[in-house]
Amino acid sequence: MFESAEIGHAIDKETYDAEVPALREALLEAQNELKAQARFPVIILINGIEGAGKGETVKLLNEWMDPRLIEVRSFDQQTDEELARPAAWRYWRQLPAKGKIGVFFGNWYSQMIQGRVHREFKNAQLDQAINGAERLEQMLCDEGALIFKFWFHLSKKQMKARLKALQDDPLHSWRISPLDWQQSETYDRFVRFGERVLRRTSRDYAPWHVIEGVDPHYRSLTVGKLLLEGLQAALKAPTEPLHQSVAPLGHSLDGKGLLDSLDLSQQLDKDDYNDQLVAEQARLAGLLRHKHMRRHALVAAFEGNDAAGKGGAIRRVAAALDPRQYNIVPIAAPTQDELAQPYLWRFWRQIPARGKFTIFDRSWYGRVLVERVEGLCSTSDWMRAYGEINDFEEQLANAGVVVVKFWLAIDKDTQLERFEAREKVPFKRFKITDDDWRNRDKWEQYREAVEDMVDRTSTEVAPWTLIEANDKRWARVKVLRTINEALEKAFKKDK
Amino acid sequence: MFESAEIGHAIDKETYDAEVPALREALLEAQNELKAQARFPVIILINGIEGAGKGETVKLLNEWMDPRLIEVRSFDQQTDEELARPAAWRYWRQLPAKGKIGVFFGNWYSQMIQGRVHREFKNAQLDQAINGAERLEQMLCDEGALIFKFWFHLSKKQMKARLKALQDDPLHSWRISPLDWQQSETYDRFVRFGERVLRRTSRDYAPWHVIEGVDPHYRSLTVGKLLLEGLQAALKAPTEPLHQSVAPLGHSLDGKGLLDSLDLSQQLDKDDYNDQLVAEQARLAGLLRHKHMRRHALVAAFEGNDAAGKGGAIRRVAAALDPRQYNIVPIAAPTQDELAQPYLWRFWRQIPARGKFTIFDRSWYGRVLVERVEGLCSTSDWMRAYGEINDFEEQLANAGVVVVKFWLAIDKDTQLERFEAREKVPFKRFKITDDDWRNRDKWEQYREAVEDMVDRTSTEVAPWTLIEANDKRWARVKVLRTINEALEKAFKKDK
């Protein structure tokens, strides 16, 4: 993997000086075009051997291009806000918006390689991290991002010479490399595990570029040209990514569906409801202040037919709690800032810290429901969303977040009754819009989308719960009970 | 101040039950109107005596209204990200957007009263904090926010009884009040300093409401009605706030202006430039990695005539540094999310943590420059901006942020030369837009705005530096030298 980056590549000063002006001009032009199109972000990952010119190269890129459109992010120590959330949160919060370039020093690769080098975990866990990185990058590319991955390399001999030179240079001595790099074993392990990582994560959509770091002219020119070529190609690409033709999702041949199998006639009488509601609310209040909750967070996503009673169910959940513990996030059309980011960014923004509870009133499932049915995204966009969402929820679960997801189901007649009732009550009229009536006409399409969604995203770590919601009392109690059971199950596992 | 909140106000259950349904309905309607107008945010500050029903009331408001449009924020321990920035940053980052309601538990008032009660500082500092709060609220109200300030009160006897009752209640015993409330002296000091704070911060635009907290019916109904009345009045108010007629800014009678007094002929020859540039860059690099920098952050704001060379000067500053240390923020038209917040919010977002450096390419001064000249805000908006900006910068300075501000000045002929030169170079053409030519026609209006700006916002803590920029070399070196001197001055004071 690294052989050809240890052979002493070099470019003489004259060639360098002759080539740089045109390269700079072209890079600047590409950068302005990137900003003007504002169609995709550029993410540059910087990794490799200590002393191989990572920092110098990034500095140079900032000089060559317009630094106002480059965001350089270094990920050192996690802050306490980052430590209280899933590991990827720190990267999501720093993603560059469309039209910008983000340079990530100390990204997910350095984190996993460092961890393995220092024996914090074994290869099996390294491979898990590798798979996670692959899925993240695949998703970012599918969302349009252009990713460059640079590995700056030095042979062991070159590195030792370089560290020595840096140490002797008064302008650099303040930046003495971490002590462990002085050790021969660190280099060996770093290269060994680096090789494993590069081998598995070099993909057509985000290949690694291994750059020999000894000669500054060589490495600078190489990086600059790779960037330029990649940028120009992406800027010329058609506005819409070319979609592979997508095979349709199969459906059950006997016409039976999951939603049909629900017994919507289930109900609770008023007394049972009052007793059970109070009991479940007290149980939830107790669970959320349980000491185990310090290791967990709670996320509840509410989806359902229009007028199925999401708002009412959410209010019954909230009523159990101290308002300082929870946060309700209503999901509407994305804002400008949100549209400039990958689809899941707006949800990552809202992920609760440990000990907290976030309720999503509609959720990331909009991608495979309304966006699918209304044609707001392409078929391949919503098709790949199933996997992306499963990844997202698995990351939450791995970080101790308990994820519960509800589909509140009513039948078509019940919906009609409720629409008509709402239109009669002045202060409820705002709840019914033309959109609701239009959605109703697409009842069958939504049913299909819901069934596909549940089939593909009901997982062990984040199962769907279908709620029979023709009877609001039944629905509210079942929602609360489901949350309570999920928390108790998670707490039990802690022991 | 608190006398009438110790007389045992109470409302019987029947009256309460009879009044609540209509109140709830009206509150819900007002809340929906608030969301529909999305014209202003509502900020509810919750303060007062322990056990007086603060938490219960907020919980009730969440039940009565639509909790999806209420954001409850509690400010307990500062996170390390908050501790690394000016104190107010934590409040700015949690401000509700227009159309939303934000409930602030543990806000600036609790912080200052707690501090004084526990003898962390004396009255003089308390009064400074009070003045800061006043200015913050004045600004929020001028930006359209509707602020409610509730003080929940109990007499000492009532409080003791209440704490006892809470302790005996199994449903509440988990929430035993902080130990210090058990002490009689804490109550006395809390009430004494609370009285001082309320007395000085009850203003027409944001008055305090003292609520006796003993009887839940009384306090709930009182708060609900106050909220409703305030909301309804604000929703009915004309879209544009009524502006007091604003006295014009006076100008010097002899026609002499600050910008005329600049000697724009100053220049540096190429050799001097190269020497001095390299020297100042090295000095800056050294200062930013100086150990004193750990206590400071650096903010540089660049303003200037179009084509005055802001971008070039910023690049020369950046070139001195490791890209991980700085962040360049180009200021363009505000996004949707930014428009939903007070004017200064987008700049607060970007305030660097200690040890870091943020460069603003254009800045908050847009308010008194382009927005003033182009009529993008009302006269009273930009008139009050001078004071708001001085407050903002003083807060930065008090937190150790070194603030430097540059106006890069060129004359009209030089601008014309540069515009024409840019239009000839293909990869610079993007830098010239129709806007630039239009701005040029308003040269005199901009000159007036700049002179007013410098007169009113060049302060000891954040002085303006006018840069003679006809000669780019002169300008770049002066910019770097000014930053270096400001840092050295700040470091000297640390000793």
UniProtKB/TrEMBL annotation, chains A, B:
Pfam families per the UniProt record, alphabetical: PPK2
InterPro entries xrefs: P-loop_NTPase, PolyP_AMP_Tfrase, PPK2-related
Keyword Transferase part of the UniProt annotation: yes
GO BP term (any one): polyphosphate metabolic process
Keyword field: Transferase
Annotated Polyphosphate kinase-2-related domain residues: 11-235, 267-494
Lineage: superkingdom: Bacteria
One function term, GO molecular function aspect: polyphosphate:AMP phosphotransferase activity
Gene3D superfamilies found in the cross-reference section: P-loop containing nucleotide triphosphate hydrolases (3.40.50.300)
Protein name: Polyphosphate:AMP phosphotransferase
Organism: Pseudomonas eucalypticola
Gene: pap
